[in-house]
Amino acid sequence: MVLEKLGSTLKSGIKKISNAIFLDKKLIDGIIKDIQKSLIEADVNIELVFALTQKIKEIAYDETIQNIDKKEQLVKLIHDEILLILGGEQQKLKLPKQASIMFLGLYGAGKTTTIAKLGFYYAKRGRKVALLGLDTQRPAAMDQLEQMAEKANLPAFIDKKEKDPIKIIKQHETSLKKYDLILIDTAGRDGLNEELIKEIKTLNKTLKPTYRLLVMPADVGQTAKTQAEEFQKALSIDGVIITRMDGTSKAGGALTACAETESPVYFIGVGEQLHEIEVFNPESFIQRLLGMGDLQALLEHVKSATDEKQQQRIEDRLKEGKFTLLDLYSQLEQMNKMGSMDKLVGMIPGMSAAKVPKAALEKQEAKMDHWKSAISSMTEFEIENPEILEKQTSRIQRIAKGSGTTTTEIRELLKQYKMLKEMMGMQSGLAEGKIDQKMMQKMAKKFKGKIKI
Fold this sequence. Notes:
Number of strands: 8
Order of helices and strands: HHHHEHEHEHEHEHEHEEHHHHHHHHHHHH
Strand order of the largest sheet: 3-2-4-1-5-6-7-8
Distance between the termini: 22 Å
Radius of gyration: 26 Å
CATH class of the largest domain: Alpha Beta
Number of domains: 3
Helix content: 55-70%
Largest sheet: 8 strands, mixed
CATH superfamily of the largest domain: P-loop containing nucleotide triphosphate hydrolases
Strand content: 5-15%
Number of helices: 22
């Protein structure tokens, strides 16, 4: 999880405060020391760190506040202050029916990848999205945008030979009018120099984008403050997208630096896959840090990762009483697209506190990969009629050998498949009003603890 160590420290500190009979100086000093260390390791500005810990001391050592009230005030203070240094209230992009977003950033920020991710995000939510490539400086920039657009199933308007971005705009002007959201890739540099400022000002004047967003990697830490200030001064940027949040422990520096410069963070990149981009909500972010989960982020994740047409197909087959191993394979594929189980569990309220061992989650992921391999090694007839495998065990041995799995794993797959099929059949009956309360109790008893997917 992003900033995992900071989250663990905050949870531990709040738990110590809540469980303490007396808030003595030794306890408070220990909590403050842990919080200071974790915030500094997360690259949060040291002045902000000491301002927070000074406020904790003021309440903790105030003799006029009763112990119970003091506990509540300290927990609320830690929550509210962390929220404040992360930017306070959530800021949202408000896109009109016809909108465009121009992306800015230095070399290596992840701008092109972020454009494809955001295009994929909005396409999933009903926008007709197109990508426009205007980075004529970086070698292979147009190729990368084209490849990422193809991956996201989005049109990319580029010209690999033209070096003048204004000519590229005019070349595609008519075609772009067919789309209601245009995402614009621009050139970067090693630093914000006069040449880059001049280019982005010209593009801004020509395109008149709805939003101008700066893309920065999380690992730049507190340098983010300088970048945000410089781009703000040069072009009055509307906000920031922070990439590579999953790959650094110093993301706190970039987040808090943006809050200090009043540059709202709209999205954060949390992985390499197309759907791994999240709307940044400081309140939800803190809830996840404190192990309270983030149901909204989980729902967004599911929406971005799942194939709605495929899901509808499975639902239709269930209504017809059909559910084969191919459908199970599709479900496993959808789960894979959503990312690691460890990441998903962290988003489910209450699951973080359950402390599911990481090794157990990794074991379950490996098991699902083995099941996918086994299904891929089956014939079409076996996939559509898995019952034949139990009658002709030689088939199971052949599949195990061909997929690099064991016969035990394949038997477990078949067992899980049968239970899922039966359970889904019951759910279908329930939807049609064919199952009474007694049948529901029987179903709950039968499947309790047995479904392991």
